[in-house]
Amino acid sequence: MKQSQIIDISKSLSNPTRLQIFMWLKDPEKNFRPHEDLQHFRDGVCASHIREKTSLSQSTISNFLSMMEKCQILTLTRHGKWSYYKRNEKVIKEYLLSLQN
User: Fold this and answer.
1) Sheet holding 82-87: strands in order across?
2) Per-residue pLDDT reduced to its tens digit, 28-40
3) pTM for this structure?
4) Half-sphere exposure of 6 toward its Cβ, with a 13 Å CA cutoff?
5) Which domains does the chain have, with CATH numbers?
6) How many Å apart are CA 18 and CA 35, to the nearest integer?
7) 5, 56, 96 from 62: Cα distances, Å
């Protein structure tokens, strides 16, 4: 993993709310209700449910999720107008391994 990506991931997790979102997404079934149309978390958690849980504005949550997606610790899947986010465990594992070296 490149040093720039390590820095970007570290920055994205340095905010308490972003870190909390990241931790919630580790176990979405426990922390969120499924989206009414999908009834599963295969594609992740709907951004609107993340916003509701944080009680922050839509624009703030969009910025937070975008930052985490940009450094690839979250992946985005769209279904119509809905955006779903889930953790990218492959990149997370690479990040943790790179910190050990």
Assistant:
1) 45-46, 82-87, 74-79
2) 989 997 767 666 7
3) 0.90
4) 11
5) 3-100 (1.10.10.10)
6) 21
7) 20, 10, 25
